[in-house]
Amino acid sequence: MTPIRIGTRGSALAMTQTTSVAERVGDLAESSYELVRVRTEGDVLKGSLSQIGGTGVFVAALREAVLQERCDLAVHSLKDLPTLPAPGLTLAAVPEREDVRDALCARDGLTLATLPDGARVGTGSPRRAAQLRAARPGIEVVDIRGNVDTRLGRVAGLVSGAPGDLDAVVLAAAGLRRLGREKAITELVDPAVMLPAPGQGALAVECRESESAPGLREALTSYDHGSTRLAVTAERAVLWRLEAGCSAPIGALARVQGDELALEAVVCSLDGRSILRLNRTAPVGDADAASQLGHDLADELLAAGAAGIAPLTT
User: Fold this and answer.
1) How far is the CA of 43 from the CAs of 70, 114, 167, 176, 255, in angstroms?
2) pTM summary value
C-alpha cells in the first residue's frame, strides 16, 4: 500500500503531535506513513497573532497541501482551526483530548498567586493576557512569540544561556506534556481562573471529502473520540455564533458529565477589567445538539452584553 502522506508544520511540537497521529492512523489502516513538512504563514510572519491574522495563519497552507493532493491528511492543533470548514475538506478525526489547562512556567517555582507585583509574564494569547490581568492586576503582561523552547527560554533561570528576561510565561499544558517539558510547569492553572481556548488540548485530522484510499477513512473513523468531538464542537460553536476569531479574548470548555454535556464560556475585555462568564448544560446528543448548546450559550452571552466587552467581529 502507498504510504499515507501526512502534512505537518515543522516545529518540534507540530512534528511530535503529527508523529503520534501518524503512528496511530498507520496502525489502524495497516499502512506505512510519511510526514510532509509544510511551511505556513504563521511560521514566517512576525508580530502578535492578532496583528498577523489570528491563529488561522497556521492552517491555510496545510489545507492547501491536502486539497492539491500533496498529502492525504493534515494534523492541526484544533484551537488553530477557523470555525468555518474549508470547502473540499472534512474534519475526519478528533483524537482523545490531552490536558485542557493552561500552564504557568515561572522562575523559582512561583505560582500565579505568589508572583510579586510588577512581575513580567509572557503570552501571545489575548485570551490568556486578559484573564491574567483579571486574576493578577499587579503584574505586567508581555506579548511574546516563538516556539515552546524559545518561550521557556524567556523565563529567568529556566534555560541556561537563554535571555531570561521574564518572570514567567503561560503555555498550553498539552503542548508541554507532548514535548516532555512538564518539569517547567510550576502551576496548572485552574479553569475557574483561566478558561482555556475552544479546542485547547485537542488535535484535528483533516482529509479531502473525496478521500477513498482503502482503509483510511475507516481508520480515521475508528480514531475519532466521541466525547472529545462533542466537547470541542460545543466550544467552537460559541466562537462561531459570537463571530469571533480563534485569537479573540474568549475561553470555552465543555465536558461530558454522565448523560449531560456541560459548557462554560468567558468573554473578556482586553485589559481584563470586564469579564462575562456563563455556563449551560444539555443532554448528551449528537454533534448538532452540541453545536446548538454552543449557540444557545453564545446567545446568552450576547444578551448579557458580550459585544460591549470584547472585540468580537472578525
Assistant:
1) 19, 34, 26, 19, 32
2) 0.91
